[in-house]
UniProtKB/TrEMBL annotation:
Domain Orn/Lys/Arg decarboxylases family 1 pyridoxal-P attachment site: 296-523, 566-752
One of the Pfam families matching this protein, by short name: OKR_DC_1
Keywords per UniProt: Aminotransferase, Transferase
Cofactors demanded by this protein: pyridoxal 5'-phosphate
One of the record's GO molecular function terms: transaminase activity
Name this polypeptide is given: Aminotransferase class I/II-fold pyridoxal phosphate-dependent enzyme
Domain of life of the organism encoding this protein: Bacteria
């Protein structure tokens, strides 16, 4: 690779090439304006050199984008070299403005200046949302072929000549010469929606820019690419693109015979064209492919329904807005929401609409499109949140008496789901982060240990499901595929439920995708079918013959080829993607779903789903799916960039570092789970770390879109900092805190301006603390230091799950408990008592009494049960509860104390359990 340079220092400032491109254009605009003002001064020579360097940097980047295009870019550069500063300044200003506003996506931006041109021409602010919605959608098509400039012009002109007024979209072609350039292009240019692979492509790129070469690692690395035979460049490129951006459409133009192509893995290739220049057919296929993703069957049906004149003689007076438009007192509601939301409101399932409970029309089609988008075999919509999705899956799959392994710090809906299903629950402990009062995730070794213990006890046939949270609220992400393959090696028919409530966006980020449940399930299914895996499995089995548990625990186990891949994920679409509140999905990738689960799943779905679901939520799920298929890659990329910018800004600001600290992967994931050795995503000395390496190797990784900020150095606990400082004073809203941290979650709507505002606020807070401490007396300073020490050092250790009392646990050795029996035993007030947290409980323990919780005790934060019905209260749990300084503890009544079972109730339940066992 050769051509072009950029300093290491400037490169280290940027996490992504998209950010680099945007800032380089802005820097070029500023430098040209300054040069125009200072023309003739001594500083102008240095400015010209700087501008030349900016042009050099951009020349390596612009070849991957259709606007302004490398031809127009070279024209602007030549104008600069010829000294036409005023024209160059105007053109750069126009390009920068069009890139910033996205104007080039809605109309042609002329790059030749004449007297009629004005700055107002570029002002997109005058366009209404309605006007933008009516404009044709724009995208770019990547053509991969090593051609001359003349041939490139021919290709582009031929594609543009196919445009017709009736085309639903408009696109511009981008031509790159090599396989490597194509991989860089699809990962760098988010406008690309289709790729045309022609037979003349070469292998290597001539771009010499480290930030661009990073993208090759995400597509398998240069070493893997170098091994491709020349005759397979085209098919292999389609396969590699499928790995990183599976939503794209590829079209392969080849001069090889049908026999040579047949049987090859063509990845995302939609159609093969055999050595022809049929540009119209290619053009129509490109539009048809994008149209397939743009389609929103239910949203479209709902829009059409809203236009129909109807007479309403069913439930819902608000339907068609009649109860509002005829009201004298609630007109403000109609004015606030507008008419369409009410015109689209109905309880009917006819007239082109559909039933969520028995979908046969547009809802069914919308769910099928969602399955395609998220990589599942079946997808089901939910309009009452992921809490309900979790209960549906558990009820559909778990029968009374089945053993379920659950991470103890999972969402409360799972615990209640265990009650409803009558499961025997074996709680798994996550590794603790005592210094930040939060938990991480459950190590693979702990999961395998419990499975092997159950196997030794002869109970493996009773084990039904493993339920884990991926990713956790704090951003710890599992190596999903490895967890599943090692568990299947012990129990080949184990079912997995991955709670991905906070991870719906991950499907559309190449780095994130392979750690999602659906992607891992598809990879595992493909691998189990391969001959290579069968040989590796046989080899390992021979090696592990008669191996003890200690050996099995330290070995990365392989599943048998006949293992069944049975994976479910639940996602809160509304939490991280575009959907109205409570819009969620259930994704299924279960080889035994149709034969074993479909009927029970339908019954569970009917049990928990309203017969009057909100059609607006369903429509938003449909539209949200369209959005991520067409621009999810771009939005997730920008989301990660925003979070990374936040990390860098806080970590490098000298004043902020006095009071705040961004927790790194090294802080939140112990070294034993980080084989890559990556400590931090950003280091002030080394710059950015390419996260691809750790996301490939490590047992746990940290979701970069979540920034956990340690705030104990301010003297405020996390809850106080959240409510009294961020929310009340500055209007900044966040979800999660711990005793000494607050969590900032970026999302696909987060802008760089939002990040800038947050940094400004944190600086203002830090300056205020500086002023406060400058004026503090000696005693005030001692009090401040004591508060900081209390928050950052004197922290109670996080308690592990203690155990179920013998009244609810048949086998103390394996430890699974009947949470349902304990839950309903507490319905009778005669079986319960209250004990004071200070004094009463500890005195009872000292007297030898086993204190057993009769309720779920859920403090916010951390937001999961530290006690469940039937669990014994340990001294560690008691100490942790006393140390909690939160305002909200569900299940605990401060005026009465902790609700516990009476000794008589426990004795009676123990007898009942013993009788049942006999």
């Amino acid at each position: 690779m050769g051509g072009g340079t950029m300093s290491k220092e400037s490169m280290s400032d940027y996490y992504s090439a998209v950010q680099l491109r945007s800032d380089r254009w802005s820097a070029l605009r500023v430098a040209l304006e300054r040069l125009h003002r200072e023309s003739g001064k001594a500083s102008s020579a240095k400015l010209k050199t700087h501008i030349g360097e900016l042009f050099d940097a951009l020349s390596l980047i612009e070849r991957y984008w259709a606007f302004p295009g490398i031809t127009a870019f070279d024209y602007i550069r030549r104008q600069f070299e010829h000294g036409h500063l005023e024209d160059v300044s105007f053109l750069v200003r126009r390009v920068t403005r069009a890139l910033t506003t996205g104007a080039y996506r809605r109309r042609s931006i002329p790059l030749e200046r004449d007297a009629s041109d004005s700055e107002d021409h570029d002002d997109e602010a005058i366009l209404s949302p309605e006007a933008r919605a009516l404009s044709k959608h724009y995208f770019e098509v990547l053509i991969v072929d090593n051609v001359t400039e003349q041939q490139e012009r021919f290709l582009k002109d031929s594609m543009r000549a196919m445009r017709r007024p009736e085309d639903p979209f408009i696109y511009e072609p981008v031509v790159v010469p090599s396989l490597e350039d194509a991989l860089i292009g699809v990962l760098f240019n988010h406008n690309i929606q289709a790729i045309v692979v022609r037979p003349g492509l070469s292998l290597e790129s001539h771009a010499d820019l480290p930030i661009l070469k990073r993208y090759l690692d995400r597509a398998g690395g240069e070493d893997a690419i170098d091994e491709i035979a020349p005759e397979n460049y085209g098919p292999e490129l389609c396969r590699l693109v499928a790995r990183v951006r599976p939503e794209l459409d590829a079209y392969l133009v080849t001069d090889r015979s049908v026999e040579d192509i047949a049987g090859l893995d063509l990845g995302i290739c939609r159609r093969v064209f055999y050595n022809q220049e049929d540009f119209m057919e290619l053009h129509l296929n490109i539009l048809r492919g994008v149209q397939a993703r743009y389609k929103t069957p239910f949203f479209t049906a709902l829009k059409e329904y809203s236009k129909q004149p109807t007479g309403v003689f069913h439930a819902m007076p608000i339907s068609r807005g009649k109860s509002i438009s005829r009201s004298h007192w609630i007109q403000d509601m109609g004015a606030f929401y507008g008419p369409n939301i009410f015109l689209a409101e109905t309880s009917a399932t006819s007239g082109g609409l559909d039933s969520l409970l028995e979908p046969h029309g547009p809802i069914k089609e919308a769910q099928e499109l969602a399955a395609r988008a998220f990589g599942s075999k079946q997808t089901f919509f939910a309009t009452n949140g992921t809490s309900t999705c979790n209960k549906i899956v558990v009820q559909a799959l778990v029968r009374p008496g089945d053993i379920v392994l659950v991470d103890r710090d999972c969402h409360k809906s799972h615990h209640y789901g265990m009650v409803l299903a009558g499961a025997q629950v074996r709680y798994l402990d996550s590794y603790p982060l005592n210094e930040y009062s939060m938990y991480g995730a459950v190590p693979i070794r702990e999961i395998k240990h419990q499975l092997l213990k159950l196997k030794a006890a002869g109970k493996l046939d009773q084990v039904r499901m493993l339920l884990l949270t991926n990713c956790t609220f704090d951003g710890v992400v599992y190596n999903v595929e490895r967890v599943m393959e090692e568990c299947l090696a012990i129990k080949p028919d184990l079912i997995f439920l991955w709670d991905e409530a906070w991870f719906a966006f991950a499907r559309f980020g190449p780095t994130y995708r392979h750690r999602t449940g659906m992607s891992a399930a598809n990879n595992l299914r493909e691998r189990l079918r391969s001959q290579a895996h069968a040989k590796a499995y046989e080899k390992q089995q021979a090696k592990l013959k008669d191996a003890d548990d200690a050996t099995l625990l330290k070995t990365q186990l392989l599943p048998p080829p006949a293992a069944r891949v049975r994976v479910y994920t639940t996602q809160s679409t509304h939490k991280t993607l575009t959907s109205l509140r409570q819009g969620s999905m259930i994704h299924v990738n279960d080889q035994d779903f149709k034969g074993e689960v479909e009927a029970s799943f339908h019954e569970a779905y009917m049990t928990h789903t309203s017969t009057s679901p909100n059609y607006q939520i369903i429509a938003s799920l449909d539209v949200g799916r369209r959005q991520v298929e067409l621009e999810g890659f771009e939005l997730v990329q920008r989301q990660v960039e925003a979070a990374m910018s936040m990390r860098r800004a806080i970590s490098t600001h000298p004043l902020l570092r006095k009071y705040f600290r961004v927790l790194t992967a090294g802080d939140m994931i112990p070294a034993e789970y980080r084989a890559s050795g990556v400590e931090s995503y950003y280091d002030s000395e080394q710059g950015w770390t390419d996260t691809w390496d750790c996301w490939e190797k490590d047992e746990f990784v940290l979701d970069a879109t979540r920034v956990t900020l340690a705030v104990g150095g301010t003297g405020w606990d996390g809850d106080t900092f959240k409510t009294q400082i961020l929310m009340d004073k500055y209007g900044i809203q966040i979800n999660k805190t711990s005793r000494n941290t607050v969590l900032f979650m970026t999302n696909i709507g987060t802008t760089r301006s939002s990040v800038a505002y947050l940094i400004e606020v944190l600086v203002e807070i830090a300056k205020g603390l500086d002023d406060l401490l400058d004026d503090a007396s000696r005693m005030e300073r001692l009090a401040f230091d004591r508060r900081v020490k209390n928050l950052m050092q004197d922290l109670p250790p996080l308690p592990d799950f203690s155990r179920f009392h013998e009244a609810f646990c048949l086998d103390p050795e394996t430890g699974e408990g009947d949470i349902r029996a304990a839950f309903f035993l507490a319905y009778d007030e005669n079986n319960c008592d209250y004990m004071e947290l200070d004094g009463g409980i500890e005195a009872a323990m000292d007297a030898g009494r086993e204190v057993v919780s009769a309720s779920f005790i859920i403090p916010y934060p951390p937001g999961f049960p530290i006690l469940v019905p039937g669990q014994t209260v340990s001294r560690e749990i008691l100490a942790f509860m006393r140390a909690l300084d939160v305002n909200e503890i569900h299940g605990y009544r401060a005026e009465l104390g902790l609700r516990v079972f009476t000794d008589e109730a426990l004795v009676g339940q123990t007898r009942k359990l013993a009788t049942a066992a006999e």
